[in-house]
Specification:
24 helices; about 15% strand; 14 strands; alpha+beta; 3 domains
């Protein structure tokens, strides 16, 4: 290649990488429009590491492998804590992946295929979406391109006419690369547990078509794979010894269990739905946080050329580079072939590179055939036609992805709700806290692994210290010793009417009119009054101060509301703590009893989770209890209590009582 032509090619590749980086970082802190809980949990894990809490496996989000948390901790420690820096690590990794893909594909298939692959990766929907989310799955394409390149390099060395010592000398770096990358991959994401299988599968294939090199390939690749599995063995030993950590496998095991039982229908259905999701409108990933529900993975023209590239590779299966590509595609799609197209955007991300490489191969093959037909027809203008087809493909892919992402998906009200846009706006723009005021956030999802992890990435550590959490539709939490309570409440978790009686000031903050959560409110509440002696203290953990029905009577087929007020004495006495997380899982119950002591109706609920409680905190809970239509009128005994959700053990009074009497419930017809 002439120096001028090389410089032009290099300039085009650099331009594509630059465009790809800009597309992946433009307005990254605002699009996606907030944070999912998965992203926030990753950020929470990184902040834990920065604070000195180290884990081998992270328990949030159904359990997470550790590599991404430590990479993200170093990244945020270097650049600071923000939504932008949280998300920036994946785009950087993806652009490095694109550069590696370009270099490797150029060596295997030539510059045209390499540049076209890079162009399609730059502007297509799936790579764009996957690059702009702070999810650990985003590192798999970079790792798998390294594995594929090292695997192919071993095969090239195995086919050379050289001594065994020379083979080992030239293959040692690919062997080491495979071992390290498998170890890293298995410490990254659950879908990676099958991705390495294309390496031994390629070795089996070589036994069929190239026995001369197969022996040496196995001689190098087997210790490489075993080395990677050995590096990962401590993780799986740890998980085996701590079976409560990993819960996602149970969620994904249904189709495989059916297959073990001889029922092929579920997995065949999922395979068909996953393949259809690549091409067919309405059949794509329906998980709103990752995709416009039902949008197929590939643009129509990209899908067409992908099929051509797939058929070409199948036709040339005896050529190792094509078979390596097919095996890589198969194991990359395997997780979604088992579980179906939902969340395939992340679960099948190992197949991202081979899918778009096959599309590039398809268009180059199509162009070659078109040029051949033009020559036969005596039409010499092959270059305009060749480039016209490429330009049409790239433009169609760009129109399929870029407007859909930035002006459609990213602005949808349901997407903004999924990314918690309203509560994030409240965190970012809420008023400062006055002296002697406590602060509570009302949230539909106040649990430790949900909205609180989002707050940890926006608020300062000082602001987080005295923050309390609950769902204001049914619960309030007053921090100990405060004169007033400042409460931030999105419209989806606005205050119960009885709590509004304590409001002495409020400010409404509007979001977009079409938002599903169109406003949030800052409330100022006066202290909750508590008079008289406590009704009971349970296990020196929590005291019941008050219990009263909000209405004197309730009719059959109605809802009775019991208000209880509690004071936290010592949260460490509430019971056992959630394994690996370290906070209690406390619940309240209310039983309405028949005359014989049996339970007529009950409710078990706590809308101010105990994970953030501190001594002296005051918990106000409204218990809503449904009364059946056939319940006879009259007075009914009612009792309340507290129990550990993990063990079922109830807390007891000093007298040994596990239930505390409250005023009787009076049921009367309207």
């Amino acid at each position: 290649m002439s120096p001028k032509r090389f410089k032009t090619e290099y300039a085009v590749a650099c331009l594509l990488l630059l465009v790809g980086f800009l597309l992946r970082t433009y307005a990254l802190d605002h699009l996606p429009p907030g944070l999912t809980h998965d992203e926030a949990n990753h950020g929470h894990e990184a902040l834990e590491v920065l604070s000195g809490v180290t884990r081998y496996y992270f328990p949030l989000g159904y359990g997470r492998e550790p590599l991404y948390a430590y990479l993200l901790a170093g990244w945020m420690g270097l650049l600071g804590v923000s939504i932008f820096t949280l998300r920036l690590l994946i785009p950087v990794g993806m652009i490095i992946c694109h550069a590696a893909v370009y270099r490797w594909v150029r060596n295997l298939f030539g510059r045209n295929v390499a540049l076209l692959t890079l162009a399609i990766l730059t502007i297509s929907w799936w790579p764009l979406v996957a690059s702009r989310q702070a999810l650990r799955s985003g590192f798999l394409p970079l790792i798998t391109i390294g594995l594929a390149a090292a695997t192919y390099q071993i095969w090239l060395h195995a086919g050379k006419n050289q001594t065994l010592n020379d083979f080992w000398r030239t293959s040692r770096w690919p062997v080491l690369t495979i071992a390290v990358l498998i170890g890293l991959m298995l410490h990254t994401y659950i879908a990676a547990r099958v991705l390495w299988l294309f390496i031994p599968a390629f070795g089996v294939y070589l036994l069929l078509v190239d026995r001369k090199s197969a022996g040496r390939f196995w001689l190098a690749s087997l210790p490489a794979v075993l080395g990677g599995l050995l590096l990962s063995a401590p993780l799986f030993i740890y998980l085996r010894n701590n079976p409560g950590l990993e819960t996602r496998l149970d969620m994904l095991d249904g189709p495989l269990q059916a297959l073990r039982d001889g029922n092929f229908a579920p997995i065949l259905k999922n395979m068909w739905r996953t393949v259809l999701g690549l091409f067919w409108p309405g059949a794509g990933d329906k998980f709103l946080a990752y995709n416009i529900p039902g949008k197929p993975t590939l643009a129509p023209l990209t899908a067409f050329f992908f099929l051509i590239g797939l058929l070409k590779s199948l036709f040339r299966w005896r050529t190792p580079k094509y078979m390596l590509l097919l095996l890589w595609l198969g194991v990359g799609l395997a997780p979604s072939l088992i579980t179906g197209p939902t969340a395939a955007t992340t679960r099948s991300i190992g197949a991202l590179v081979p899918i778009y490489l096959l599309a590039a191969l398809g268009i180059c093959f199509f162009n070659a055939q078109l040029v051949g037909l033009l020559k036969l027809a005596g039409k010499p203008a092959e270059w305009p036609v060749r480039y016209a087809v490429m330009v049409v493909l790239i433009l169609s892919a760009a129109l399929f992805s870029i407007p859909a992402y930035f002006t459609d998906w990213g602005q949808r009200p349901d997407v903004r709700a999924a990314y918690q846009a309203t509560i994030i706006d409240a965190f970012e723009n809420g008023p400062s806290l006055q002296n002697n005021h406590g602060r509570m956030v009302s949230s539909v999802l106040p649990g430790h692994a949900h909205d609180p992890t989002i707050a940890g990435l926006i608020l300062s550590p000082e602001e987080l210290t005295d923050l309390r959490w609950g769902d204001g539709r049914l619960a309030l939490v007053y921090p100990a010793g405060v004169d007033q309570l400042q409460l931030l409440a999105p419209s989806s978790a606005d205050l119960h009417p009885v709590f509004r009686e304590r409001v002495i000031g409020q400010t409404v903050n509007q979001m977009r009119p079409d938002d599903l959560d169109p406003f949030w409110t800052t409330y100022e509440l006066e202290p909750w009054p508590v008079s008289g002696e406590p009704l009971a203290t349970l296990d020196n953990a929590i005291t019941l101060n008050e219990a009263r029905w909000l209405a004197e009577t309730v009719p059959p087929n109605g809802v009775a509301e019991l208000l209880t007020v509690w004071t936290v004495v010592d949260p460490t006495n509430l019971g056992s703590t959630i394994p690996y997380v370290g906070h209690p899982d406390t619940n309240l119950f209310v039983h309405v009893l028949n005359a014989d002591g049996s339970i007529l109706t009950q409710v078990d609920r706590l809308d101010a989770p105990a994970w953030a409680w501190q001594p002296g905190d005051r918990i106000v809970q409204v218990h809503q209890i449904y009364i059946g239509p056939d319940v006879a009128e009259g007075g009914y005994t009612a009792v309340v209590g507290v129990y550990d959700r993990l063990t079922g053990a109830r807390l007891n009074s000093p007298e040994g009582d596990s239930v505390l009497p409250v005023p009787e419930l009076n049921i009367q017809p309207d």
